[in-house]
Amino acid sequence: MRGIELGRKKLFGGIEGGGTKFNCVIGPSPEEVWARTSFPTTTPEETLTRAIGFFQEGKAEYGILSAIGVASFGPVDLNRHSQHYGYITTAPKPNWTYIDVVGNITRALNIPVAFDTDVNCATLAEGAFGAARGLRNFVYVTVGTGIGAGVVADGRLVNGAMHPEVGHMLLPRFDEDNDFRGSCAFHGDCLEGLASGPAIEARWGCKGQDLPSGHPAWALQARYLAAMCINLTLCYAPERIILGGGVMSQKQLFAMTRTEFSKLLNGYTTLPAAADPDNYIVPSALDGHSGEVGALIVAEKLFQQSDSQ
Ligand code: ADP
Ligand code: ZN
User: Fold this and answer.
1) Residue 239 pLDDT greater than 50, yes or no
2) DSSP assignment letter at 166
3) Which residues contact 309 (CB under 8 A, 6 or more apart)?
4) Does the pLDDT of residue 19 top 90, yes or no?
5) Which of 207, 210, 211, 252 to mutate to test ligand 1, by most ligand atoms within 8 A of the CB atom?
């Protein structure tokens, strides 16, 4: 077993469970990954069995894992007193409603399993190792198939009676966009219905990655993202807003969003950070790995908590 050769370091597992694919990693710390696999999200049975199999093989190769962290797509139940704690609950993805993720993994591997949303985990990762390193107040937003955000206030993730659902905030409609009804199944033209990857595709009849960088889609996108940043600024007074996810691969969006943000803010607020948009609205610094890094962070935290008790 390489675990013995490698000096008996503690080992952790991480799962970034997305609606499209699952990424699984094993490593001794969030910054060091020894093994990685990725596979499509199919049925819950097949997908969780593959993830469990990866960790069983990992144990044989590297040694015993101390804990596993799951960064899950959602909605999920994070209330430890709920009968559905650790479940993916009312997910729109077919076959994935009320799936006991934590229970299935715990029973199969018999080790502690930490559980949080994919975006909360990515937020922790940005705070520990990424674009929000050293900050105690920030927001991380992913703009992809859906839009989700993790909010950190005074060094802690904000989870109220459940995790926030920033992606469904309501925004002003811009005149040039009045013909588009929005793509959210629940609200039509909420933020996600106006500015997620599927919203862009529904509005323009073409996936975002296939639209040229000078297409009018991006000017409109920047206005909606700026409106979102205004609301986040006014609600949470963060020191920085980090934007990640597939849609933010359009790097031109950053400068455009900052310009629109300054226009919409119009000098209001004494929040110093907002006065310097270049350092306020910034890209993720973890190159698409924030979810799995965050999964390892929550695994390590859970182990440290249980070890100190
Ligand atoms: P997910 O949200 O499923 O975890 P992503 O963050 O990669 O995954 O987001 C996927 C969405 O981002 C899709 O709707 C896709 O069309 C869009 N997207 C991916 N790459 C780009 C790109 N280069 N430009 C604009 N949109 C993109
Ligand atoms: Zn919505």
Assistant:
1) yes
2) G
3) none
4) no
5) 207
